[in-house]
Amino acid sequence: MYAVCVFFFLSVSCNVIAGSPDCFAKIDTIIQETFRCKSKQIVGVSVAVVTSGKVILEKGYGVKDIETNDTVTADTLFGVASLSKAFASTLLVKLIEENTKYSLNTKVSTIFKNEGIFLDSLRSKYATVRDLLSHRLGIPGNNRIRLDNNLTRANVIHRLKYLQSKGSFRDSFFYNNLIYGVLTHIAELIGRESWEKLVKTHLFDPIGMNSSSFLTTADFEKIDLAKGYIDYYGNLKPVPFEFSRRWADLCGSGCILSSARDMAKWMKFYLDEGKLADDTRLISKEAFEDLTRPENVIATTYTSTYFTKPKVPVTTSNTGYALGWRTGHYRGYKMLEHSGTTFGYRALLSVFPDADIAIYTAMTGNDPSYLYRQSLHNVIFDIYMGYTPWLNSSTICSYPRPWLDAKVQSSKPRYSKGRNPTRQISDYHGIYKNHAYGNLEVKKHKDGNKLTVVYGFSNFVLYPKNKTDEFYGESIGTTAHIFNFYSFKFRFENKTVKLEIPNFESKDPPEFIRSAETNLTNKSCFLNVSNNVCFVLLYFAFSALLV
């Protein structure tokens, strides 16, 4: 009975000019009702709606912090994650417009004065800025490289030459945050300032986004910031701000913090096709068309899985990728859209140029497969455009049911903390190297007969599986609850020891090889021999090799 009543309430069109109190009340009610049913998954929500040049809704729901219970407002900052990519592309297009030395078709090798940037000669010779912005390189994400303490915006370009391509150049879509790290540095090279300063000067300030900031530079104690939360097998756990700062270092891929009030201004800027509030152009019409024109085709997305006819009554499509934006349609209207998902924060922004409406949501907590965000955007659009919504509070709460079965959430793997590995602990010790990922260390854990893996600012305690030389890795320290039970697979091949970590990149699992120095050390210097004797033995061993 409840679901029927809610549907009847929403099925009545506003039938008045957009932005009426009637429309606002309907939207506000459905957000509050659905937020209540999602309260075990989501802590805080930020929403903004812009249409016909006016801000119709900018509001916060829930709390910023479970412990303090402080409420979210329209000015509360959330991590917008990959919504940052549209800022990265817009900034770069603007800088290129102002610097005639470069264009979107400038080759990456020209910018870095290096003809061996990628593993193959085709990409090294022909890849352009446009290719990077539209994810056309065919290189898998390898996102866990971002855990390496030695990775920077300046040197990420040097890691790419060791990454295998798995798709065709300019004929495949492989989403890649590392590439947007490269684009961040390209903007810094052209603009001669840090990316954060460039975004503030060229975008935030003229658009009026006065509260927005960056995970990389913000003083978390002094800003109105929602704390990120992550789902840990059914329980919400806070994400340390320090982790968020370090994870966001590549910045253009996902470091921006913003509020409903500021994002409303960003959406107006895009609805006005690059014009500011005073009707002056920040970027040319041609540049705006470059930003929003599809450059790549996306074969499969979450919308094709959960929001497409005949599976559900109305199709939402994301079939193309422009520059920092996905392109598609809803209800036949052209749509620019991008999702943002990082540890602790979720976001979605939808811009409908022809309907003159844009919608933004951000939240802390868990929203698997974007089901809540996309459902909210669809029903908000329907209400403002006068359509009879196909979704209501009840079906948003149960989505994708009743149309599709919900994806079963993964459960914590069963393992024994008391099981011993099949080899001596010391057999696994050492420094393991991978050209793209850098080094990691395997060593004895401080608590008993266990191994620990240290990679950058991540730390895993290993627990043996039933299979020989395979382990579950439970993250601890700064990354606790974030990287859940990764698989670590050791292989002993003659005198070489290799470690494969499939969870680091499923499309091309990286393999780390234990260094030769480690092998010598394990066989000689860990014996009950004095350090001096060990040194003498090593000296003669190396001398013999040189003869």
The total of helices stands at 17
The structural class is alpha+beta
Distance between the termini: 89 Å
Question: In total, how many beta strands?
Answer: 21
- Weakly predicted, low-confidence segments: 1-13, 519-547
For the record, the CATH architecture of the largest domain stands as: 3-Layer(aba) Sandwich
User: Beta-strand percentage?
Assistant: 15-25%
The backbone outline, from C-alpha atoms, is globular
CATH topology of the largest domain: Beta-lactamase
Number of domains: 2
The CATH superfamily of the largest domain is identified as DD-peptidase/beta-lactamase superfamily
Average pLDDT rating: 91
What Rg, in angstroms, do the CA atoms define?
26 Å
What percentage of residues falls in helices of 4 or more residues? 25-40%
Read across the widest sheet, the strand sequence of neighbours is 2-1-13-12-11-10-9-8
Biggest sheet details = 8 strands, antiparallel
| CATH class category name of the largest domain | Alpha Beta
